[in-house]
Specification:
This protein is an alpha+beta fold. The protein has ten helices and ten strands. Strands 4, 5, 6, 7, 8 and 10 form a six-stranded mixed beta sheet that branches. Helix 7 runs antiparallel to helix 8 and helix 7 packs parallel to helix 9. The longest helix has 16 residues.
């Protein structure tokens, strides 16, 4: 993540451009994809053609490739190294309103360990291999060479920003960048939540002796769990509500017969945590759904 000197072009050269755009062009020349952030460190909204997911799923950008909208659209997926895009009229208007520059670490082959407070920084210094560090307003960014899947809240005050995420550009930092270590990759591997079996966590009515529960049909139960996982994974907004709704649907169908196991519940919790939910939020949603159904 070096910062090469750009050639002055035209009257006024780089000095005639807004400061965030000057920084962005410098980073883009070093093959770091960039985008502007508005007040609140948030990306600019989607263009009218993409508002309300009208473009067919591009806001999540999990498989559609780089954003090709004329404006600064789709958050991290808009990040680019193309100076013609960065200096286009639509983007220039955004740069004039921008308060800072962000970059897409994964596309640059990087992972940012975002340490959000002093306690997280102390943990990193005692646990992680030294690498390039950048001071933030509340903590530090530790930058490693290598990309991985982004995850939030891997431990208190620690986020991993790489693919499908953006990080603020706060300067080149200090220290020598090192390769992404296994200890950082391991942070993204979330242990299955510790949950009680359904027979203890959910009060279920006793089944008639000798009557086989129809929900024990493997295909029926598997389809219900898979549908709930898919519903959670596909959510693009209102994650809390989606998780609660999925839990409610599973419990309404399978919660009274005692056929849910720790493995089934862990699958649902893992799907929710992959969308950024914490184990506590998962347990709260599960308990709330149980209470709603009177289980």
């Amino acid at each position: 993540m070096t910062q090469p000197t750009l050639t002055r072009r035209g009257r006024g050269g780089m000095n005639a451009l807004p400061e965030p755009l000057r920084t962005a062009l410098t980073l883009a020349a070093a093959s770091v994809p960039v985008l502007p952030l508005r007040a609140g460190k948030a990306p600019f909204g989607n263009c009218p053609d993409c508002t309300g997911n009208a473009c067919g799923g591009r806001p999540n950008m999990k498989s559609a490739g780089p954003c090709r909208c004329p404006g600064v659209c789709h958050a991290w997926a808009a990040a680019t190294t193309d100076p013609a895009v960065l200096t286009s009229p639509a983007w220039k208007a955004a740069w004039r309103r921008a308060v800072c520059v962000a970059y897409h670490p994964g596309a640059a082959g990087l992972t940012v360990v975002d340490l959000d407070n002093a306690a997280a920084v102390d943990w990193a210094r005692a646990t992680l291999p030294a690498t390039r560090t950048v001071e933030t307003t509340r903590g530090e960014h530790w930058i490693y060479r290598g990309a991985m899947t982004s995850h939030n809240n891997v431990r208190p005050g620690v986020d991993l920003k790489s693919t499908m995420a953006y990080a603020r550009w706060l300067g080149p930092g200090t220290g020598t960048m090192t390769d992404l270590p296994d200890v950082v990759r391991a942070l993204a591997v979330k242990e299955p939540p510790t949950v009680r079996p359904a027979s203890r966590s959910v009060s279920v009515p006793a089944r008639s002796v000798g009557v086989e529960c129809p929900h024990r049909t493997p295909a029926f139960l598997e389809r219900g769990i898979a549908m709930a996982e898919q519903r959670i994974t596909a959510a693009r907004s209102a994650i809390h509500a989606t998780v609660y709704g999925a839990f409610l649907a599973v419990l309404s169908t399978h919660g009274r017969c005692g056929c849910l196991t720790d493995t089934h519940i862990a699958r649902l919790f893992n799907a929710a945590q992959a969308k950024g939910e914490t184990a506590r939020h998962c347990m709260d949603a599960w308990n709330n759904a149980s209470t709603t159904l009177g289980l």
